[in-house]
Amino acid sequence: MTFNQQPPNKIERLRREHNTLNKLWNLYHQKWTKLGEDLAIENDTATKNKLEKQIKDAKTELNDIEIQLSNIESMLPQRQITQSRDDAILQESSNREIPEIDQEIEQVKEELRKVRKRPRISNLWSYLKDLRIKVCTRKNRLIILFVLVLCSGGAVFLPYILINFNPDVCQLPAADVSNIDFSPDGKYLATASLDKTVRILKVSETITDQKTKLVVACQEHTESVVAVKFSPDREYLATATLDSAYLWKVNDNHGIITLSKIQDLSHVDTPPNNKLQYRNPVVAIDFSSQDGKYLATASADGKIKVWITKTTEAKVLPTPPGQAKAYIVSVSFSHDGNYIATTDVNEIANVWELKADDGTLTPRSLLSIPNVTDVAFNLKNKENNIYFATARADGTVQVRDISNLNQPIPSLNHNTYVVDVSFSPGGKFIAAIGLDKKVSVWDRETKNSAIPLLTQESLKKNTNVAAIAFSLDDEYLAVAHTDGKVSVWNTINRTEEDSLTPQVKGLVTLAFSSTTNGEYLLAMAGVDGQIEMKKFKRK
Q1: In sequence order, what are the beta bridge partners of 370?
Q2: Which of 19, 34, 239, 388 shows its CA 20 to 30 Å from the CA of 47?
């Protein structure tokens, strides 16, 4: 049996699909940016609501395409990836209108369908003919028949083989990183991965692919892990997965870390037609920051539960009147653990008070705010006041004192749709990231822009912002950019302290450790599962 040509090239097909998806991502990014610009100058309320809905839909498409691209990139050799999404941004034209972009989107979608369409195979012999396999002789036909019989037998036993073949995923490098969290003492870093694992790394200033001795513990889950969080005393670890959430006891025996499962914190629905119970994905988790007494879990169906950590007793937060449950985007505790805030995919923020006058856990809805994309409470500050920040679709950030929620402090203006807001740990600064991929930083007391993070020169280099992180004493601000670089700013003298190019692929998140011997560690995580750490000295 001889072959005159190779079977269809899978690598070539994947490469073409990757390039076509990049085109599609580029077009949706153009549409997303253009809609954000239109929203910033629009005054009509009805038109603004329509634009906000279109922005949300475009963002959903971008996220879906990014997932598809990441899956393909994991199967392609690096040299086969001819165009990155960062390259695509550089090709954008700001003069195009939405209908023109939509028309090209449909054309590229049709192109993508053709790329993905596989050739029809009418029968085995025509397929062999397409491969130009010479099967004319009786001997070759007998050989092929024998191979087919063997393959048929293998197909019968294949399910049994797959069920019983279960390699230990913890013995392999992490396939990706979706979330990270330092232990409060700064000694360990927990990572969450879509490969269904949570790994605990011993902190060290090194690059690791998470298969070295730095991994001191690994816990496999039944589904992909999307979030991980240490309790403030490092006694517990909470994990959120696509089918549940879990509370673990962190056991430290002279540096030997093990995790013992305490409770399955599942969000289970029982359909009225008596079908099997459905376990909802848990998409956000948070410990009360001061004492870790409470743990909040939020699921994709809009249900929020507050658990008493010691007893795992839970209370479900009541849905405010007139609202429908919706996918929860973020959840945040006040530093004293008495209040909790959430925002959902419908851009509605809700604030609850957790304790009744007698000190029992009795959740009570306080306030609902529309057109909010993200929420954040400040951590403990010198005045011990509780502030609550909301990122808004109109391009502003509002800050409220918890004692007077109905009277927001004058708004901070970012000028375009805001997608993320956070307080610095020390409470001195408020940071916001907008749809335009810029970051604004304000001094909470003066309300003035504090740090000139993105100058015109840096914008020319396409240093769009992907994520930010403050050091715990507010001294440093790290900014990750979509070109793979990380800028570290000194907030005291308002200058760039360092410019880093970590050897990780696709930066997804940043985190600073607590101070140890006058030093911090900045962890930078990529979609390829790698972690890089950089040491900074406290000034």
Answers
A1: 348
A2: 388
